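seq:
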Amino acid sequence: MRPLMLSAMAVLATAVAACGGTPPAPVQATAPPAAKPTAAPAAAVVPPGHVARAALDEVLLQGPPWVLRRVAVEEVIRGGNFVGWKLNGLPPAWGEAPLKVGDVVMRVNGQALERPDDLFTVWKGLTTAKEIRIAYERDGKEAEATMPVVGEPSPEVVRAIEQGRPAATQRSARRKGVTVIEEGGASGEDEER
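struct:
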């Protein structure tokens, strides 16, 4: 799970930029939240290469799982040192985004994404960021994509993310491709379900 969790920020900007400034459809919650913060209304027109604050807020409120369900990555280590996250798969709808399959994302807004704390630092920082900068490597050459954020930060969204309350997401009983092993079954041995 570590590679997926840490890669979330590597593609967050790609996901939002690919939305074309239109907020993504929210994931249905299993139970309706009491008072879910709302993102600012979408700007009528967002210039190419820019990100609407409302679209960014919607993704941030979905939490890292929104991105994690959409991206395939692998950790890149060279000479024993962490380099970044190689994008092995992106949804077809993100075809116009600045990042492409094969790119190695090294930093988002100056922050490496090596540890889980790094992800949450960037995630929180994006609630007030005026731009999203992604340092990446493509075909062995370093580059940086910068996307200005259009719109003012929403105090409700900032507060919700700071308090660690992204929107609830619908969860199935079992994730695809995951074997769950429970300890302490009826026979006292581990059980697989």
